[in-house]
């Protein structure tokens, strides 16, 4: 498994500029009607093995970790880590939706914010936002969606500091929510970042923030059950704007006990061949059964990013959406 993972990571770095290579007929389609690859729990590649357990976790988990840290902590790390690529590597691989679970550590007197998934990360939110900016500056035609979620332990003051930090770092690259986010419009205006913020009060105050993006989370341990859930959601119908279909499996206590030598990585890699088939059957677009963002774990494997990007070749926009010019009519992607 490890060998396959490393090979995939190396090859899929060729998708760093895939948006700039889309044919001109897609430049006037809103991004919420295109297919975009995303990473679930983006920041878990840098979880801090020594950090406290998140305030959101159950009292039982905290108690067990306190009583048997040598046993419980390795288990937590195995089932909390969902990515191995850094943010820059994920962006270079073609990911355009980043799932940021933001938190403030309990009893931390500083205003530093971290990412969290059971435990906190070693890297601060501010450092990662600067890293994303540096990547965007060398990829001027790529657009990234930052989904800011969770907000464990954030006060009103910390929300204000976080939003000020986002504005200071990205400045005019931030796309206001009153803009229809097509590639042509964003390129013309110099916008490269869409920030969704899972706190309605703050969204109402800042036009640079977009409402929380719905995430179809199956909460399933079995691949077939996850696919059935996603198909049921498609029958209900997609939201009007951005939304995520999560192809990530989710463990529970029973599953962990039955698989004592397992990990989320092993669980995910076993599911990817079937999920790959499901992905290839999808269509992006505004219709009820269409998809938009597809997010997964360990995104460097099994051509996940390439398969999602290639869904855009199925789009045939009406003639009035196609602008005059000498746009290219094909998409070239790097295989993983």
UniProtKB/TrEMBL annotation:
Family annotation (PANTHER family): PI-PLC X DOMAIN-CONTAINING PROTEIN 1, PTHR13593
The protein's name in its UniProt record: Phosphatidylinositol specific phospholipase C X domain containing 1
InterPro entries according to UniProt: PI-PLC_domain (IPR051057), PLC-like_Pdiesterase_TIM-brl (IPR017946), PLCXD1/2/3 (IPR042158)
Pfam families for the chain: PI-PLC_X
Molecular-function GO terms, alphabetical: phosphoric diester hydrolase activity
Provenance organism: Falco tinnunculus
Gene Ontology terms: biological process: lipid metabolic process
């Amino acid at each position: 498994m490890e060998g396959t993972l490393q090979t995939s990571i190396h090859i899929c770095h060729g998708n760093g500029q895939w948006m700039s290579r889309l044919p001109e007929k897609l430049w006037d389609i809103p991004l919420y009607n295109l297919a975009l690859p995303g990473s679930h729990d983006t920041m878990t590649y840098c979880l801090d093995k020594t950090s406290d357990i998140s305030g959101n976790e159950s009292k039982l988990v905290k108690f067990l970790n306190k009583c048997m840290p040598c046993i419980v902590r390795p288990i937590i790390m195995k089932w909390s880590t969902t990515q191995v690529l850094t943010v820059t590597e994920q962006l270079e691989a073609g990911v355009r939706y980043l799932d940021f679970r933001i938190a403030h550590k309990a009893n931390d007197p500083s205003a530093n914010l971290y990412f969290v998934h059971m435990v906190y990360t070693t890297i601060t939110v501010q450092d990662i936002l600067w890293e994303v900016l540096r990547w965007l500056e060398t990829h001027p035609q790529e657009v990234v969606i930052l989904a800011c979620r969770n907000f464990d332990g954030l006060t009103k003051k910390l929300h204000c500091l976080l939003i000020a930090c986002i504005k200071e770092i990205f400045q005019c690259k931030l796309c206001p929510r009153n803009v229809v986010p097509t590639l042509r419009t964003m390129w013309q205006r110099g916008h490269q970042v869409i920030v969704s913020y899972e706190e309605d009060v703050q969204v109402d105050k800042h036009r640079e923030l977009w409402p929380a993006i719905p995430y179809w989370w199956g909460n399933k341990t079995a691949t077939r059950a996850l696919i059935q859930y996603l198909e049921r959601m498609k029958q209900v119908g997609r939201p009007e704007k951005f939304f995520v279909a999560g192809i990530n499996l989710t463990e529970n206590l029973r599953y962990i006990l039955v698989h004592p030598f397992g990990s989320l990585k092993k669980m995910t890699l076993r599911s990817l061949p079937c999920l790959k088939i499901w992905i290839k059957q999808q269509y992006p677009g505004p219709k009820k059964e269409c998809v938009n963002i597809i997010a997964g774990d360990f995104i460097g494997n099994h051509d996940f990013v390439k398969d999602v990007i290639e869904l855009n070749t199925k789009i045939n926009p009406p003639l009035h959406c196609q602008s005059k010019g000498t746009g290219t009519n094909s998409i070239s992607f790097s295989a993983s």
